[in-house]
User: Fold this.
Amino acid sequence: MISLQWLDAIAALAMLDEKSRFVFVETEFNGKSYKQLSELTGEPIGTLLSRKNRAVKKLCVMMENYNNNGRKQDERGK
Assistant:
């Protein structure tokens, strides 16, 4: 059975912009290095690192907005 938290994580990934999601998925799930992604996309490694860092921060904030019951909280945490 798939947990609500897992579904929330998938939904949060879908809310990332395409470039951020690409870097996150390729490094975390597909095991690609930043060097490989840089060669593939033609973008500097520093840009990819920054993009992933911002994606991780956004994902953390989005996941914190869900309480234990799987209900989305508003921005005030209620």
Q: What stands out?
A: The CA atoms of residues 15 and 52 lie 14 Å apart. The first helix runs from residue 4 to 15. Residues 73-78 have pLDDT under 50 and may be disordered.
